[in-house]
Design a protein that fits this description.
By secondary structure, the chain is α/β, with parallel strands linked by helices. It has helices at about 50-55, 75-80, 100-110, 115-130, 145-155, 175-190, 200-205, 225-230, 235-255; strands spanning about 10-20, 20-35, 35-40, 65-70, 70, 85-90, 160-165, 190-195, 210-215, 215-220. Strands 6-7-8-3-9-10 form a six-stranded mixed β-sheet, sandwiched between helices. It has a four-stranded antiparallel β-sheet with strand order 2-1-4-5. Helix 3 (about 100-110) packs across helix 4, helix 4 (about 115-130) packs antiparallel against helix 5 and helix 8 (about 225-230) crosses helix 9. It is globular and about 55 Å long.
Length: about 260
């Protein structure tokens, strides 16, 4: 996909988040453009989810600045939330409610106008392929169906920016591929997608990738750029080589400090 990178809708400058003596996010800076699929990669505990929660207005940054859809995440979190969609690996669905009841609930949360509720519900059911299961209780759905329903609920208010925190975790490869087909449809309409994933093949679907490790951004670029710079054939090799290089650089400093 060709993305024009002169219209940033997510701007992050020297973002930092600490919890006591622990630094979860350490001076991250980046920009994401309208209609771009931006992948945020890193091992567990690297700071990916914390960064997304800050950008969604859920956590306040310790220092630095970030704007999403033109709103400051630190001072205007409610305006940020009104302009984004958010989906986590837990899918944010209510298992004891039916498919239709979940859609109705999120219609209320996002204050969908009464005259649009029927139209938006129909769209979610069709997008998720759940027209025949609208009265099924969510806990009885397969992982792939839950995933598509959660996506529909996250974008029922037609947000300009969508944050996905490991959205394909625990679903089968076919469901993952179908999910990404839906993501492409959304970005084709100008929606910006910021996604974290552990799957290297999914990283290849992104326009650009940011590799985060120990709270810091250690690489940024397209999949092709990152592979060429490291002179390797796969993003998994990029991932491993950059982290090993970072650890080698840090180790002498730790030994001196010790």
């Amino acid at each position: 996909m060709s993305v024009i990178r002169n219209n940033p809708v997510v701007v992050v400058k020297d973002l930092k988040k600490t919890f006591g003596d622990f630094t979860a996010v350490d001076g991250i800076s980046l920009e994401v453009s309208k209609g771009e699929i931006f992948g945020f990669l890193g091992p567990n505990g690297a700071g990916k989810s914390t960064t997304i929660k800050i950008l969604c207005g859920i956590l306040a940054p310790t220092s630095g600045k970030a704007t999403v859809a033109g709103f400051d995440v630190g001072t205007e979190p409610e305006k940020v939330k009104a302009n984004i969609g958010y989906m986590s690996q837990k899918f944010s669905l209510y298992d004891d409610l039916t498919v239709e009841e979940n859609i109705d609930f999120y219609s209320g949360i996002y204050r969908i106008p009464v005259n649009l509720k029927v139209e938006r519900k129909k769209w979610v059911l069709e997008m998720a392929g759940l027209q025949e299961h609208r009265r099924s209780v969510c806990k009885h759905l397969s992982g792939g169906w839950k995933q598509r329903l959660a996506l529909g609920c996250a974008i029922i208010h037609e947000p300009r920016i969508l944050f996905l925190d490991e959205p394909t975790s625990g679903v089968d490869p076919i469901s993952r591929r179908q999910f990404w087909d839906l993501i492409y449809q959304l970005t084709g309409k100008g929606v910006t997608v910021f996604v974290t994933t552990h799957y290297m093949e999914e990283a290849e679907y992104c326009d650009r990738i940011g590799l985060v490790y120990r709270g810091g951004l250690i690489a940024l670029g397209t999949p092709s750029e990152l592979k060429a710079k490291q002179a390797v054939q796969s993003l998994e090799e990029v991932f491993i080589s950059l982290i090993e290089a970072h650890d080698r650089q840090e180790k002498p400093q730790e030994e001196v400090a010790g």
